[in-house]
Specification:
By secondary structure, the protein is of the alpha/beta class. The protein is built from 12 helices and 10 strands. The chain folds into 2 domains: 41-130 and 268-329, Periplasmic binding protein-like II (D-Maltodextrin-Binding Protein, domain 2), CATH 3.40.190; 132-267, Periplasmic binding protein-like II (D-Maltodextrin-Binding Protein, domain 2), CATH 3.40.190.10. 38% of the residues lie in helices and 20% in strands. Strands 1, 2, 3, 4, 5, 6, 7, 8, 9 and 10 form a 10-stranded mixed β-sheet that branches. The termini are far apart.
Length: 333
């Protein structure tokens, strides 16, 4: 009987840890009423980021540290994940309290399209930095454009990532079937960069802020063997799917390139569930802007975070706690 009882206790504890994902997401749901930005009880939040050598991960860990430094009874822990799609799925499931996401994936979630078969109950804390679509090929592979990836070994990013979403859309726009016309390598950025270096991968897609540490590594150690592809000719087809896609430029100085690299860009959002305690959402949003200098020290992409852009999260609604924080901070409407 004692062994049965102990086994039952172990299972119960395991279930608790699984439900929390080890990430201590314990924020209460919104009870309504005025938003004071005061959190009475200590609250622990898990933050879903992305690949370990990406900007989401760097900023997410710095953000978690700065949330704890506010002294507002909110503590946070950041975790490596597969990024956007997976982040939203686990946010809605309750494994995390905050999630980084590309705007196109967030739009799919709110509309119940793309990777989501129903509308997801999410809201935004703010628009943050911009992700740059970084498509890099090995010169020896002879790939001149995305259509030229046919039959090649191509990393389309981690499964259920925003990178995978954009990669599949770009391949489709170029007339290729991502499931048949390439040898898809669904790898995280660290393994992708290793594959580009050793020649086992011919091309990679990556959607990330500037600079992305993993891409810096690749360009620093194998810069003479690789080159960026210009994917902007495919932009009109992407905009038919989602108008959030825009043209942008990777400055040459970012990775010591011979010239600026034109590309497709998409904003990033910080997401929460739409029923998160409004006071917690307010604290999280204020921490993002009040502690921005500290975030910039973690990664230069944080320099793009601005109050002028913070409210631009359509079609994802701002959480009411975030709206209160942005009002207090003087963000333009």
């Amino acid at each position: 009987m004692r062994s049965v009882a102990l086994a039952g206790l172990a299972l119960a504890l395991a279930g608790t840890l699984t439900a929390c994902g080890g990430r201590q997401n314990a924020a209460s749901t919104d009870a309504g009423g005025d938003v004071t930005c005061e959190v009475a009880n200590e609250t622990r939040i898990g933050i879903a980021t992305g690949n370990a050598t990406g900007v989401y991960f760097a900023l997410g860990n710095a953000y978690a540290e700065q949330i704890g430094a506010t002294g507002k009874n909110v503590k946070a822990t950041a975790s490596e994940t597969g990024a956007s799609v997976q982040n939203i799925q686990q946010l809605v499931a309750g494994s995390y309290g905050v999630a980084f996401s590309l705007a196109d994936t967030a739009a799919d979630a709110i509309n119940g399209t793309g990777s989501f078969d129903s509308e997801q109950p999410i809201a935004a804390l703010a628009r943050i930095h911009t992700n740059y679509t970084q498509v890099i090929v090995r010169k020896a592979a002879g790939i001149k454009d995305v259509a030229g990836m046919k039959g090649k070994r191509v990393s389309t990013g981690s499964p259920k990532s925003g990178t995978e979403v954009i990669a599949d859309r770009l391949l489709t726009a170029a007339g290729l079937d991502p499931a048949k016309d390439i040898s898809a390598q669904k790898l995280d950025l660290t393994k992708t960069v290793d594959g580009m270096k050793d020649g086992s991968i011919d091309a990679l897609f990556w959607s990330g802020g500037l600079p992305t540490p993993g891409i810096t590594d690749l360009l620093t150690t194998a810069g003479s063997q690789v080159q960026f592809l210009d994917v902007t000719p495919l932009l009109p087809d992407l905009q038919k799917i989602n108008p959030v896609y825009e043209t942008g430029t990777i400055p040459a100085a970012t990775y010591q390139l011979p010239a600026d690299a034109p590309t497709v860009v998409v904003p990033n959002f910080l997401l929460v569930k739409n029923d998160l305690d409004a006071n917690v959402a307010c604290v999280l949003t204020k921490a993002l802007f009040d502690r921005k200098p500290q975030l910039e020290q973690a990664n230069a992409a944080a320099k793009e975070i601005s109050l002028d852009q913070a409210r631009k999260t359509d079609p994802v609604p701002l959480h009411r706690g975030s709206a209160k924080a942005l009002d207090d901070l003087g963000a333009p409407r």
